[in-house]
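Q: How would the structure tokens look for this protein?
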Amino acid sequence: MRVLKNIFALFQDNREILDLSAFENEIAFKTSWEPLVVGGTNFCTHRAQKNPSLAGDIFVFKTTIQAYLLAFSFVALGAMFAITSAASRFADMSVLLGLGFLAFGCWYQWSLRQKESRFDRYSNELTQGKKSFDLKNAEAIQLIREYVRGNKSSYYSYELNLICSDGSRINIVDHGALRKLREDAALLAEYLSIPVWDAIDFRLPEVEVPFDGKAEVLRRNLG
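A: Here is the predicted structure in token form.
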């Protein structure tokens, strides 16, 4: 029995339970701490950088070279497969398969560009693809993780979400490079002058307790 308990203990989440009251903001109790985006990647897809402009610095998340190379590899593989297979016995099937790879590569490159974000604190606007959001409602930056199970391998993907004053969330990036994600979150938090709520090293409480601001202030003063 002890051996079985030790085996089961290996698969248990032994992280400390997340204390939402530590953020000292009732919005932390209104927002969700579950993954906002299903799935993710095991490599870095976007990085943060500041771009100078006439009005001031613009903060952007741009697609990484690694992500572009992956998209291009599908395009190149699909095009090459379709061309070389055109004269084969099973030309129709081979060409369709090659075009499928090519289409996926083009779609993946397009989706990477759509996830690029542009923050302008002077106009209080966040632009992501064709969507725009009001940065006046930005309350905090949320960092959470998701365990992604694959057929051949599993990995953790980490989300950087912007939490709004009504508790809603906007996903900025979702990838597997934890150190880079935290670096970018710190830079964005400094740019927007909002806190980072990092829950990656914690596990979620099974039951969330409603936030009582007065009780929390009293507890901290007495403690």
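DSSP finds six helices and eleven strands in the chain.

Residues 4-10 have pLDDT under 50 and may be disordered.

Upvote if useful.
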